[in-house]
Design brief:
Length: 366
């Protein structure tokens, strides 16, 4: 042993000190991320220039499943923006199945619109349908068509609209880290049928695992469409397996928490937790109500769904004009009990108070 090097108890103390410092650094970073994400969204940071409104266009929003509140609300935003820009907008529902989505998309192509919006399903898995539409001269914009936002030229998609899933995952996981003081025992809920959902869940898992005092107890892959029938039994099973170790939940969608309350009540758990339930999207009406009331959900990372509907129309208009996508990605926002009534929250939605509607109307000359 070289002179001056710590040995035995001294080495153990040094290592313990290093680990404690790393844990504190991770906790401080998480707290800073949460502070930024919970701030009011009062300033427009999106595009301010672009082409004027293309006249007389017809656009069809092909929704994966209108029972999904996020998909429906984006469709509402597309319709609202369509009226503002002077277009005709139709909505077709894929009803939550692969065959239903294919049928709805084929129907949309047959109607020969100027544009089709991919509403909440995977662009790669539906590449054949999209290629057929593009070959017919139809412009394509997607919402949640891939894990990353932005143009997808190789799939004939002008732009994929959505939040940065990596940032969303980080904010949700960091809230669990910050609230637990770096000691969260986490169960993660996802649905591998959606590439963006699986990617987001894996990123949440990875973020939790960067903190020495946190652990991922379970990574549960259960279909969103089956939450009403599966969540009760699954929750009971998780309580039996992990008991008091299960202190936080992270889910890729609020829908999982629509059905988690009854089994937790039956187990004598407090509505405010543990487990403390956090969602990485989409900010449903029921999620807002649960957060406001402290009933089985503490936070959500909602997307500005109406704003994204307006962005869909703007990106489509840029495509009609032969201009590139704007590249805009809305900042990540975290809703908790402290800010639940801000930025549209009194209506149980996240609708930023940043005057985005006026900004887009100005761009379009409307």
């Amino acid at each position: 042993m070289k002179p001056g090097l710590p040995t035995g108890a001294g080495l153990a103390m040094l290592l313990a000190g290093t680990g404690a410092a790393a844990a504190q650094d991770a906790l401080s970073r998480a707290q800073a991320v949460v502070a930024a994400a919970t701030a009011p969204a009062s300033k427009w940071d999106g595009p301010t220039t672009g082409p004027k409104a293309a006249p007389g266009k017809t656009v069809i929003y092909v929704a994966a499943d209108l029972r999904n509140g996020g998909i429906q609300e984006v469709g509402d935003g597309v319709k609202e923006a369509g009226r503002a820009i002077g277009w005709t907008v139709r909505v077709l529902d894929g009803q939550g199945s692969v065959s239903g989505i294919h049928s709805a998309f084929s129907q949309a192509v047959a109607l020969k619109p100027d544009g089709i919006v991919v509403g909440g399903y995977d662009v790669v898995q539906n590449a054949g349908d999209i290629e057929q539409a593009a070959a017919s001269g139809i412009r394509i914009v997607a919402w949640h068509g891939a894990p990353k936002p932005g143009p997808m030229a190789e799939y004939h998609v002008i732009s994929n609209i959505g939040s940065d899933s990596a940032r969303v995952a980080k904010v949700a996981a960091d809230y669990a880290i910050a609230q637990s003081g770096g000691k969260a025992g986490v169960v993660i809920f996802t649905d591998s049928a959606y590439a963006i959902a699986l990617a987001k869940a894996k990123m949440m898992r990875d973020e939790i695992q960067t903190v020495p005092g946190c652990s991922v107890l379970a990574f549960e892959d259960t279909p969103l469409a089956d939450t009403s029938t599966r969540m009760s039994q699954l929750t009971t099973s998780l309580l039996q397996r992990y008991g008091a170790k299960w202190t936080y939940s992270l889910a890729i969608n609020d829908l999982y928490y629509d059905f988690i309350g009854p089994p937790l009540i039956s187990a004598g758990r407090d509505p405010s937790g543990p487990p403390v339930n956090i969602s990485a999207g989409d900010g449903s009406n029921s999620a807002y109500e649960r957060i406001r009331g402290g009933q089985f959900q503490a936070a959500t990372v909602p997307e500005p769904l109406l704003l994204q509907g307006w962005q869909v129309v703007d990106e489509m208009n840029r495509g009609f004009a032969g201009q590139p996508a704007s590249g805009y990605v809305a900042p990540v926002h975290l809703v908790t009990a402290k800010n639940v009534d801000l930025d549209g929250g009194k209506k149980d939605i996240y609708d930023p108070d940043n005057n985005y509607r006026d900004a887009y109307r100005k761009i379009w000359g409307r």
